[in-house]
């Protein structure tokens, strides 16, 4: 009967090739989160800066230890130990656990020690692994041309920002003031809407303020009558006010409890890509020339062929991919033709 074990680099199995049986269950410990807590002089408690730089929790490596016993004859122990050392000691490899054949881990391995008794030999393998386990199969999404998918209704930017609100205000933050993440330059306008029932009157006032701020603190601000239920703002007007529309940090709607912010553009195809715990950089294959790609507010000019960028990252919340091209307004554009494919690797804790 085949015993459970580990496959290295899709080549060597601990039991099939070396006759090693596990002394303990196969357990990969969870990685430690990189937590940053800062004491406040003269204050109580601490500031949690864990997500201040990236907006996400980051993790350290996993460090499992695997202990095996050998079924080899005693005279073979030394040669077996040497064979395993020559194969994996100090090398970077991938592993698949028999108990989880749908994922793999990557890391550096070392043969720690060999112990023997009169009856058994014990071999210990230590690993320093990436914090994530990865799906064996890559995820691939095709983006076919479909007129029903061509929209000017807009992408909900509220989903991209971390909302901070009090009784009176809806305040969306995109990244941080130091590292803004929202780029409006691909869009013609943004539409801000709210429900009349949710409108509050601050200090008895009859208007509220919409403010759009970039990472340098420059802002565009208008005052809106509370009788309105929405406002459409041209991106060109925001830019003309001195705001860097490629680095928006904050959209604040005062005196409104709940607001929806949408970015509108002409002839865009939209696909939402599901995320994973592992921040993945996708490979994108474009099948037409002169396509503009916007991903979560950042804009890229791409040509036919393979494209990838470290600025395009699929995080745990996923990503919205918008493909812009005059071709999408052409009545001769073949329905069902593939505009692009998005290929990426999912990973989990």
Indicate the mean pLDDT.
86
- SSE-based structural type: mainly beta
> Which range best describes the helical content: under 10%, 10-25%, 25-40%, 40-55%, 55-70% or over 70%?
under 10%
Summarize the main sheet. 9 strands, antiparallel
Roughly how many Å apart are the termini? 31 Å
Q: Count the DSSP helices.
A: 2
Overall 3D form: elongated
What share of residues are in beta strands? 35-45%
Radius of gyration: 27 Å
Secondary structure: number of strands: 29
Oligomeric description of these chains: single chain
Low-confidence stretches: none
Overview of this protein structure:
The protein is mainly beta and 349 residues long. Helices cover 5% and strands 43% of the residues. It contains two helices and 29 strands. It has helices at 77-88, 235-240, and strands at residues 6-8, 12-13, 20-22, 37-39, 46-48, 65-70, 91-97, 100-116, 121-129, 133-135, 139-144, 150-151, 155-156, 162-165, 170-173, 189-194, 207-214, 219-225, 230-234, 248-253, 259-264, 268-273, 283-286, 291-295, 298-302, 305-307, 319-324, 338-344, 347-348. Strands 1, 2, 3, 6, 7, 8, 9, 10 and 29 form a nine-stranded antiparallel beta sheet that branches. It is elongated.
């Amino acid at each position: 009967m085949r015993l459970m074990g580990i496959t290295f680099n899709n080549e060597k199995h601990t039991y099939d090739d070396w006759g090693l049986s596990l002394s303990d269950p196969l357990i990969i410990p969870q990685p430690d989160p990189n937590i940053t807590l800062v004491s406040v002089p003269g204050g109580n408690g601490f500031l949690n800066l864990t997500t201040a730089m990236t907006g996400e929790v980051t993790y350290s490596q996993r460090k499992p230890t695997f202990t095996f016993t050998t079924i080899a004859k005693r005279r073979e122990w030394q040669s077996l130990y040497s064979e395993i050392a020559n194969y994996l000691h100090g090398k970077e490899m991938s592993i698949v656990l028999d108990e989880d054949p749908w994922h793999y881990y990557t890391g550096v391995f070392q043969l720690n020690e060999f112990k023997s008794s009169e009856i058994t030999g014990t071999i210990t393998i230590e690993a320093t692994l990436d914090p994530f386990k990865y799906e064996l199969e890559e995820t691939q999404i095709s983006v076919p041309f479909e007129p029903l998918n061509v929209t000017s209704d807009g992408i909900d930017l509220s989903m991209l920002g971390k909302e901070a609100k009090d009784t009176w205000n809806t305040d969306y933050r995109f990244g941080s003031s130091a590292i803004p993440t929202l780029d409006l330059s691909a869009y013609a306008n943004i539409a801000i809407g709210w429900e009349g029932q949710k409108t509050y009157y601050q200090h008895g006032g009859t208007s509220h303020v919409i403010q759009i701020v970039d990472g340098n603190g420059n802002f565009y601000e208008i005052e809106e009558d509370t009788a309105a239920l929405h406002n459409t703002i041209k991106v060109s007007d925001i830019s003309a006010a001195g705001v860097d529309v490629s680095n928006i940090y904050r959209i604040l709607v005062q005196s409104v409890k709940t607001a929806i912010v949408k970015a509108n553009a002409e002839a865009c195809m939209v696909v939402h890509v599901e995320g994973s715990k592992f921040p993945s950089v996708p490979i994108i294959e474009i099948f037409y020339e002169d396509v503009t790609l916007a991903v979560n507010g950042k804009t890229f000019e791409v040509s036919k062929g393979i494209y990838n960028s470290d600025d395009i990252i699929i995080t745990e919340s996923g990503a919205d991919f918008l493909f812009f091209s005059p071709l999408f307004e052409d009545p001769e554009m073949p329905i069902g033709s593939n505009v692009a494919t998005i290929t990426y690797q999912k990973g989990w804790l």
